[in-house]
What does this fold into?
Amino acid sequence: MKRLIKACAVAAVLGVAMPVTAIMADDASTTTQQVTEKKVTFDIEKMTCAMCPITVRKAMEKVDGVLSVVTDYDARTAVVTFDPAKANVEAIAKASEDAGYPAILNDSHGS
It folds into this structure.
């Protein structure tokens, strides 16, 4: 009977310890992910119709390391979130320019 109680106690301790460990590991990976993301804003030239922002977004999303692109036709901007270990501002701007829309880094929005 004492062995059964000890086994139940050990199982209970392990059952509680494992979720806590998983939560702590998730928090650590979230912190790491936040450190490896950078957000920049580009002014986009030559956008003249509703399809232009879609073309810009698709071109920028093809750059390895780009996590998201939000284009704004009215403001003529693209806000890009990317992993600086995989992508850089120059490569993202070049992708837009190669699609026919020159992209200029907008320093006033910061990151």
